[in-house]
C-alpha cells in the first residue's frame, strides 16, 4: 500500500492513487465511516463496466448498497437529474450518516457532490474517478454543481469528499480521445508549477496515465486548493487555458471536447502572452510543441468575433474586466486583469482568425 496525497482543506482527506483500488474500495471507505448505507451514483456506460465490482466491494465491507444510474453526458448534469437523485435518496430513507459514492467522470462527480452537499444539509461522499480528467482535476478540491439552462455550473457548492480513490487500471477502458483530454489538464498543471513534469510528458505522452504523473498532478492541485480553497486567489491559476477554451467549447456547440478546447486555449493565451512580452516567444512555442506532442489541437478556425461574444458571457468576467491566467515561464503563471475592451486584441494576438 503506498501513501495517499493528503488534502488539508475545511475537511481533510486522503487521495489514494493505486492500481487495483476498485476492488478495495469498500475496505478503504469503511476505514473512514460507520455509514450503514451507500448510494452509488454512476452513468449508464460506467455501470456496465464497473458497477457490479464496486457494489460487491461495498457489500463485502458491510454497506447496504443502492444505485442511481444517470444518462451519460454533460447535458444531463442538470436540475432534472439532480432532482431524481434527491428523490431516490429521500424515498430510500437515507440518513445524514449515510454515504454517496460517485463512480465516473466529472459529470458524475459534480452531480454526486452537489447532491451530497445539499441532501439533508450535507452528507459524506466519496469520489472514485474513472476518467483521467476527473482523477487529476475535478475529483479533488470540492467543487460540485450542476448546469442551469442559463449556463454551466451555475448551481453549486464547495463540499469536500470523505476520500478520493484513483485506480489507474480504470483508464484502460477510456477512449483514446478522452485520455488526451486528461493529458491536456496534466500539461496545464505542469505549466503552472513543474517544468520537469512538462519536459517528461512532452517527451513521453504514454506517461499521462501513469501513477506517478497522476500523483504529481494531484499534488499540484492539492497545493492550490490548500492555498485558496474558495477560489478567490491562487486557485484561479487552474483556469489556465480555460477562458479562451470555454469560448472555443461553447462556439463549437460542445462538439470540441473540454480538454481539446483547453489545449487550444492554452496555446492561444501563450501566444498572446508572448506578444505582450509577459513570456518569451520560446516559452509559447514550447507550450505549443508540448500540446502537439500529446496529439492535442492548438488552433481553431472559429472566427475571433464569435469567440469574443462567448468570452463576454463567461461567468469569470467581473464587471468591466476579466482575469486571464498567463504563463511567465514553464512552471510559473500569473493572473492578469484585462479590461473587456482589450479582450479582442488578446484573442487576435492569440491567433484568432
Ligand atoms: N477545476 C478547477 C478548480 O477546481 O478550481
In short:
This protein is α/β, with parallel strands linked by helices and about 350 residues long. About 45% of the residues lie in helices and about 20% in strands.
Description:
The chain is of the alpha/beta class. The chain folds into two domains: 5-173, Rossmann fold (3-Layer(aba) Sandwich), CATH 3.40.50.1970; 176-349, Up-down Bundle (Dehydroquinate synthase-like, alpha domain), CATH 1.20.1090. Helices cover 46% and strands 21% of the residues. It is built from 13 helices and twelve strands. Strands 1-2-9-6-5-3-4 form a seven-stranded mixed sheet, with helices on both faces. The longest helix has 18 residues, at 176-193. The protein is globular and about 60 Å long. The relative contact order is 0.11. Bound molecules: glycine (GLY). Glycine (GLY) is lined by residues 137-138, 141, 143, 231, 235, 238.
**What is the radius of gyration?**
20 Å
The name CATH uses for the topology of the largest domain is Dehydroquinate synthase-like, alpha domain
* Strand arrangement in the largest pleated sheet: 1-2-9-6-5-3-4
Strand content: 15-25%
Q: Extract low-pLDDT stretches.
A: none
Q: What distance separates the N and C termini?
A: 52 Å
How many helices does DSSP assign?
Answer: 13
By CATH, the architecture of the largest domain is named Up-down Bundle
Superfamily at the CATH H level of the largest domain?
Dehydroquinate synthase-like - alpha domain
Structural key phrases:
three-stranded antiparallel beta sheet; seven-stranded mixed beta sheet; 2 domains; 13 helices; 353 residues; Rossmann fold; Dehydroquinate synthase-like, alpha domain; binds glycine
